[in-house]
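ARCHIVE CARD
Drawer: 12
Card no.: 0347
Subject: one protein chain, sequence and derived structure
Cross-reference: see card 0346
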Amino acid sequence: MNFKNILINQSENLATVIINRPKKLNALNKDTIQELFEAFKALEEDETVRVIILTGSGEKAFVAGADISEFANFSVEEGTTLAKKGQEILFDFIENLSKPVIAAVNGFALGGGLELAMSCHFRIASDNAKMGLPEVSLGVIPGYGGTQRLPQLVGKGKAMEMIMTAGMISAEDALNLGLVNHVTSQEELLPLADKIALKIMRNSSVAISAAIRAINAGFEDGVNGFDIEINEFGECFGTEDFKEGTSAFLNKRKPNF
């Protein structure tokens, strides 16, 4: 896969997607969103890939926001289409990917950058990370799922404050709020992501996909997450991974998924 704005490093079952626009602080423009969609779609279909890490190039930014110059003159209809298409092809797409996606947040994750990180299944951050949704300072609101995912992660009140003040929080604050799972040095960020990915890869990818669907169902309107869990749980009993996992446990050996 040849891309202009992103890089992909693949090592055995682990793929790392790097947003590579350092001169623009990795800002999301239309082309980058499309490339990310194409990359994640290909990685989803690649049976050798079991975990994906998403990060930004350089030391300054994961993604410093959307490329404002692209939509500064948009009409109401164009703005609505921008948010709808972006959510569908990238942010919702990543959230519902059957393979775990870890956001490794280095530096600024602002606006669309934080929204992109929140669409991943979980996040880790370097200690220099700064996160926020500054859209109201531009006379607009988060449009790539920020008003929905941020309250789910940090609670309604804190999300209201972060969005209304347009302020940034530190990596340590993000950790305390549950927005990120771990904070480490910039040098150790990707090694930590790799370490977590390796732990994930020891387990059943079939079961992990089922868990992703069940967990996400609990946040969907009109969907009973408990019912989805019951169904996904039952379906696991018909898989080869269940046979292997239970056999390995009963025979006191490590499973070979």
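Annotation on reverse: The chain is about 45% helix and 15% strand. Residues 6-201 form a domain with the 2-enoyl-CoA Hydratase; Chain A, domain 1 fold (CATH 3.90.226.10).
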